[in-house]
Amino acid sequence: MTEHLTVVRHPLVQHKLSHMRDATTPTPVFRQLLREVSQLLAYEVTRDMALTTRRIDTPLQAMDAPVLDGPEPALISILRAGNGLLDGILELMPQARVGFVGLYRDEATLEPVKYYFKVPPLEGRMVFVVDPMLATGNSSAAAVSMLKEAGAVNLRFLCLLAAPEGVARMRAAHPDVPIVTAALDARLDARGYIVPGLGDAGDRMFGTK
Ligand SMILES: O=P(O)(O)OC[C@H]1O[C@H](OP(=O)(O)OP(=O)(O)O)[C@H](O)[C@@H]1O
Ligand SMILES: O=c1cc[nH]c(=O)[nH]1
Ligand SMILES: [Mg+2]
Questions:
Q1: Ligand 1 test: best mutation among 79, 105, 181, most atoms within 8 Å of CB?
Q2: Which positions are annotated as binding uracil (predicted)?
Q3: Rounded Cα gap, residues 124 and 106, in angstroms
């Protein structure tokens, strides 16, 4: 990927995102929409996966058919809300190895607090990091640093909503990591929430508020 930031403006993505932003959309619908959008966003973030060919026989003749090359990709979910993107993408790439980075944002400092880290071997793999929200960028920047320490080299970051502050933070800390998102919103509010945003993604997914 050559662009640092790709905004997926596909009408289906934008339509579903608008329903997710709506404060009256209930948790089960929110979760289903996130699953659907995850697969549409996955189409974009995986577009430069390497292909090779395999000799196969169709019912009519032999051909060299394109198949994915290289080791299985790794999908890394930033807990909790990342799991809302993970399941749908895993359906498209069932061969992927899966890892989890447990982080929550300290509400006062907006710094990420780490509580879990379990990832597959990352050397040589394409690594897709998923989290619906890129706000200050502190969580995603920290997660990517941990993954690089664990051996990841070839990373992509996939989110649903990004704030300009988070994009700038990622660009400064990890200019080598392309970001794919459904929307670049206006700004962060005083509490570090994306505006207009959709609220707290984890709470809306799991009904914790
Ligand atoms: O860019 P940042 O300012 O770091 O904010 C984004 C982070 O905040 C949210 O997680 P949260 O801390 O609410 O944890 P949760 O997924 O458990 O709800 C979100 O899912 C990101 O991980
Ligand atoms: O707007 C925001 C910011 C951080 N985390 C969220 O879930 N939402
Ligand atoms: Mg949350």
A1: 105
A2: 194, 199-201
A3: 33
Tokens of 182: 């459904």
201 part of a folded domain: yes
> Domain range holding 169?
5-48+74-206
ipTM of the prediction: 0.97
200 catalytic, yes or no? yes
The reply to whether ligand 2 has any atom less than 6 angstroms from the CB of 193 is: yes
52, two tokens:
């090779």
Separation of alpha carbons 75 and 77, rounded Å = 7
CATH number where 39 lies: 3.40.50.2020
Ligand 1 binding pocket includes 104 (Cβ within 6 Å): yes
pLDDT tens per residue, range 15-52: 999 999 999 999 999 999 999 999 999 999 999 999 99
- 138 a known binding residue? yes
Question: What's this model's pTM, rounded to 2 decimal places?
Answer: 0.97
